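> tool_call: predict_assembly(chains=two)
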Amino acid sequence: MDRFLYLTFDGLSRGAVYAAFALALVLIWRAARIVNFAQGAMAVATAYAGYSVTNATGSYWLGFAVAIIGGLVIGAVVERVVMRFVDHSSPLNGVVVALGLVLIIQGVLGMIYGNNFRPAEAPFSRDAFQVGGVALLSRYDLFVFAAVGAVVVTLTLLFTRTSTGLRMRAAAFAPDVSRLLGVPVGGMLTLGWALAAAVGSLAGMLVIPTELGLHPNAMDLLFISAFTAAVLGGLDSPVGAVVGGLVVGLLLAYVSGYLGATVAPMAVLILLVVVLLGRPDGLFSRAKARTA
Amino acid sequence: MTALLEITGLTAGYGAAPVLHDVDLSVGEGQIVAVLGANGAGKTTLLRAISNTLPVTAGSTRFDGIDLKSVKVERMVRHGIAHVPEGRGVVTELTVDENLRLGGLWRKPKPSLDEVYELFPALANRRGHLGHQLSGGERQMLAIGRALVATPRLLLLDEPSLGLAPKITAQIMGLLRDLRDRTGLSVLLVEQNVRSALSIADEGVVLNLGRVAARQKAGTLADDADLRHAYLGF
């Protein structure tokens, strides 16, 4: 029972990061109908930038801020310079371009920083508190929950309560009509990419200290887990992404806890295949009742 | 006096093949001009060329002295032109209230929606409903109401009667005329429903295969049996 509790909290903490990363994928999917396969590589690039600043200045939070702002910038640049010019007549085009970006970004990172793991320190202790004799949560886990919670709340308020959020939703649902109503559709798309990439960078900053450290491929596994979470949630649903993230986190924790860590990546892939076979629209997809 | 909207020698279309050829047309301040013609005559293309959602090959479209060809689509509404596209263009994933707010987001301060709700009481009861939950008539009202939130000087209206019951169509037409009388709004009204359109229009323009076949006072046009038979099919 203690072990189960421990694994549950561990899973929720991992799941929160997957949820944030899945949310980033969903944001771009909703805005541009592209699955941004480059999201992991983009997040790693900003994490390198962040830790470079941290190492130079000694301030974790300065580096953290640089990584998040770097996410905004890299998202906007990727949309403006690359994705805007991709022909969207086939969904495959965006995917191929995104995969190309992955290779470029990982290659450049390898050239600059080398292909070995670099230590990435956490801003808070990762030693868990003992609650009733069971080690449940560390300060760092609390930081992860708070950061992801803040992102979810901020995004929800942005999209449902602000004019900019209304513009972004309208531009995504009906670009032509929105343009006629004075909405700068291109700008909203750039903003969507920027926000999504910043959320991706946050997820990267949160997860990298808990794994082996900085590496050009550091986010590859996380990408698969988060992508599974997003698909589980229906790709279109922010709520689905968050729930999907937590589910995948729990699954990974239980599988690696009870069956061994080496099986965990396989469990994610099996879940992905099962979802794609059984419920390709996800658990939270909207009804497809779009008439005239 | 020059008209509010002045179109001369307009040629426009999709790709290499122009749909409109050398079209001249004008809409005066506070005037309702009906554009009539069969399917494929170029009525929708005309509106899209004016609002720059379609490239203009030749000719000029001027609005209150501004060359519209140099105005970006998303800036049109700031110049006082509201285009309600065919099929109504309600964002079906957004609520009635959100759709209406969307119409006035560029304005500072944000305009009140009360006037539109007063104009369309049917919408006031459905503020929180999503676009796809509305009836055809309600969607049309929403699309027009959303355009009005921007307080345009010229309304480009594409087939507002499409798929609506005659009673609803008459209601919408009456409302357009009232608006014109009250606020001096100019309307360029594209319609298949010739009788309804001419019942409120000051002037009618008949398009045939992308060219202006006739341009007359609405009353004269309605009485011209030959013209009606030739181009309007009744």
